[in-house]
Specification:
Chains A, B, C: InterPro entries: Amidohydro-rel, Metal_Hydrolase. The structure is a homotrimer. Chain A is built from 17 helices and seven strands. By secondary structure, chain A is of the alpha/beta class. The first copy, chain A, has two domains: 296 residues, TIM Barrel, CATH 3.20.20; 56 residues, no CATH class. In chain A, helix 1 packs antiparallel against helix 16 and helix 13 runs parallel beside helix 15.
Chain lengths: 376, 376, 376
């Protein structure tokens, strides 16, 4: 094991984008869909995916099972230990001491940020998902002409809560990024809100309102996380190519940091933006556990071809099962350490620089962008 | 040689998409264009491509020539042995026992599926190319108002022929996938058919008729193969990005299996679809012989980053020269075996799982999707 | 070191697309922005990028510093030696004997082609950037109805200058390639010129005029270089996907060679075009120094998956600092040699073929396309 791996193993990570874990014990029928973005299908097992293989390999030992334990044994042992103990083991193993938790996606009953971080002995922060704020405003009942102000007030209130350090948008899922980059006018917003509210509100996918949401994020002044690339079947992948954000990034330069999450398969497109826009950062979050340790390095190497080392962050994007908090951290450490160490070994990179870049990506860059205090 | 390579070498492959081979002896002027999607150009040789290099390396020995034999010796020896013997040698060497043959593309006089399979001692099946069916309907003469029914009847008749197990569309070449996903109405089809037939029929590229063709495939109930990505100069690559199929896949979920062929350079986009849509499968067919053994593994590794192991299939997409039936099989076996064996060696994957996934991709997945009997 | 590396190290390269170097001595504040397409940002250093790391590693020794010398020492030593000596060292080390210099981008005071080549003991040629010609025509004052003729006359005059061997367009930056492929009519050009000139001329980004520029390139009969892919924040990456050129390439087949520059991250899309259009060539120029030696091979391997070996060229696309002329050449030699040698070692490629392909890509292909005499 090289010096970079040692340093990264010892480094407590800052996970700048993740979710809570399910608090209930999970049957196999409940567990399997959580391993994938695609759901569980009859006649197959979600363990027969790269993520499922990685779980059997890297998570089974933490449940006192042999590596590559069969799926049925894995799920049985998980149930035997109980959700609380399972979550504790994986969250502790992740070696993460700061969790920035997106609290806006809760189809399951999940741990709160405080509960999640407590299980790992870490510090919780919160990321406010703006679509959820907007949809709650609609659900409470609002006139179209008052929507813009009500959403803005609700967003401002949401980010004033203690521990909130950033906001997030899933515009990639709702409209994609191929939007008019300009801030919509008040009449445009009112008209779009009228249309949306007349349909009963619900899932926000009106292009004008998504644009207004992104511009509200600018006004809020906090780092904005944007889902980019891979996801569930709701994504239209080509519309989430972050290159479509270029005009908007020009218009908003000098305002808020923009954090491109996951990015696969557009990690190179994301890197181009991070290389030329001061405010753009990226991670390969969700990809880490989906492609597993076997391919995380390959993905990260593409992401890092031109990305300045100040611009790479770590996230797990783990949702629901704490296996992914562990697997994300493990994949990230191995991928980055392998990449940097090989360059050190080939004398392409000096070891002190490699150690510096590893620390930046694993913790320092995120702390700086989100203005987090260093843990004492 | 590792255990996975041994198993894959011993496994008879199911080639779920290929074409026949030219029955005539070929001069160098006739042979060279068949090595490429680009034709032969003055002042150069198509042997000076990755595919040409792979042919000289991996096919020359089967003609009793040294590895890397010069192009002129290769073509001379080929002529000396005669097409029948050359085809027999390569088709036998391929180790393929099931051939699903696309019979709808015949600029040359090709072997029938039965002739192709017989040369390898394998079993033939047929894939009906729907554009060819539609164009034949137009060529026979049909009124615009009767086109939809006539095409449907002809397609139903075509797929009732013994041995037909699937259909194919080259929509990627004709319009690309950025189509209105909805089933077109009868008046729309009639209007489009009127326009097409008024122009004399021929190459079907009317967007409405291509949509109607894809929906007819849904009605036929058989697996639908879709050309995706690389091809000849008729392709507009960006319009063949399979992510454009997302809305159509939502509308047709629960109906027919959709087989994404080749996919390069969109293998990751195809993988995203295979990961989230139950009905989507993929291969990297045509890419296997064009990139050769030197790069097939790299392409396959990208394709497999998130693809469930139940969703990968093998095809050679060989056309015209039996070299490509051999080269496709060889590239596939090496690429998949190398990928899986390295993961076994790194203890990222258990050997029994690796063997299972290899068998699935090489034969079992295709047999299941196309409901093929297992050879006795 | 293998035989291919030896051959490539001994081969004088033809750099078919580069720029001059700054003639003035550079302070750190002036030097750092030249290392990146993104400018220098407060609180960070452009040395903390892959390109910056590569400069400290591979350029510092040529300034008599240790490998990985700190940034401040690097810049101090650079100043101590003076621009002339620094440029001489790097340009000599590049091992390039033919420089095709794009003279149309000059935000800094740069060496002329003759000065650049003289510093390396090489031969200069010139590439005329057509947007600069068009903008100069507008700046001199022209009526809209006379613009087409005046631009054409100016372009013809520009390419008649001694040493001009090709033209270049930055259409990728101005409109992207998703243009109507047809030659615009005279009235269309006049109308677009009227609009452009009414706005004071300046940066040419009228789609009709960009189309007319590309068609004028066809009339000029010289190889046309097209910027493709990565660049500064002015690029909209997705619109520079060269697949959008397909219809235009069909219309202009049989006329001029089209040289796709850089291409990253669309190197596979560029390769598809080079594989099927006789007139299309490619390089991975700008990517070579931005991704550095650590990743140039990976990028080149993707570019070469299906590219005929007659179609790959070398360019550095170095601008401003001679470090990049050196780094481009070093990255190219290592990447190509590594790729070819490994295939030779694996017996996938015969050594004589590898040596032939290396010479073609490093010098011969460019000399043939641009009809350059061989240096005596």
């Amino acid at each position: 094991m090289g010096a970079v791996q040692e340093a990264l193993d010892a480094l407590k990570l800052t996970d700048h984008h993740c979710h809570g874990v399910v608090t209930a014990d999970l049957s196999r029928e409940e567990f399997e869909p959580l391993l994938t973005e695609g759901g569980a299908w009859p006649g197959g097992s979600t363990f027969d995916t790269p993520a499922g293989v990685a779980v059997r390999r890297h998570c089974a030992p933490l449940l006192d099972l042999p590596r590559h334990a069969p799926a049925e044994e894995y799920v049985a042992r998980r149930a035997e230990l109980g959700a609380r103990e399972v979550n504790r083991r994986f969250l502790t193993a992740a070696g993460t001491d700061v969790f920035c938790v997106d609290t806006g996606y809760t189809p399951h009953r999940l741990t709160s940020p405080a509960e999640l971080a407590a299980a790992a002995g870490g510090t919780p922060y919160e990321i406010v998902r703006l679509e959820s704020v907007a949809e709650a405003v609609a659900a409470r009942g609002v006139e179209a002409g008052e929507y813009a102000g009500a959403f803005r007030a609700a967003a401002e209130e949401a980010v004033r809560r203690p521990g909130v350090v950033g906001v997030k948008s899933v515009a990639a899922y709702r409209t994609g990024f191929d939007l008019d980059p300009a801030r919509p006018s008040d009449p445009e917003v009112t008209e779009a809100a009228r249309h949306w509210l007349a349909g009963g509100g619900g899932r926000l996918a009106e292009p004008v309102l998504v644009r207004q949401l992104l511009w509200t994020a600018v006004d809020l002044g906090l780092p904005l996380q944007l889902h980019v690339g891979l996801g569930d079947s709701d994504i239209r992948l080509h519309r989430s190519d972050p290159a479509h954000l270029t005009d908007w990034l020009h218009l908003t330069a000098g305002t808020i940091p923009v954090m491109l999450l996951h990015c696969w398969p557009y990690q190179r497109q994301a890197a181009q933006l991070a290389a030329v826009f001061e405010q753009v950062y990226l991670d390969v979050g969700l990809a880490l556990h989906h492609v597993g340790p076997a391919r995380s390095r390959a993905v990260l190497e593409e992401a890092l071809e031109i990305t300045p080392y100040r611009k790479l962050l770590y996230s797990s994007d783990a949702y629901g099962v704490a296996e992914f908090h562990h697997l994300g951290a493990l994949s990230f450490r191995r991928a980055l350490a392998g990449l940097l160490q090989d360059r050190v070994d080939a004398d392409e990179l000096a070891l002190p620089d490699a150690l510096r870049f590893a620390e930046w990506a694993g913790a320092h860059n995120a702390r700086q962008v989100y203005r987090l205090p260093w843990p004492s």
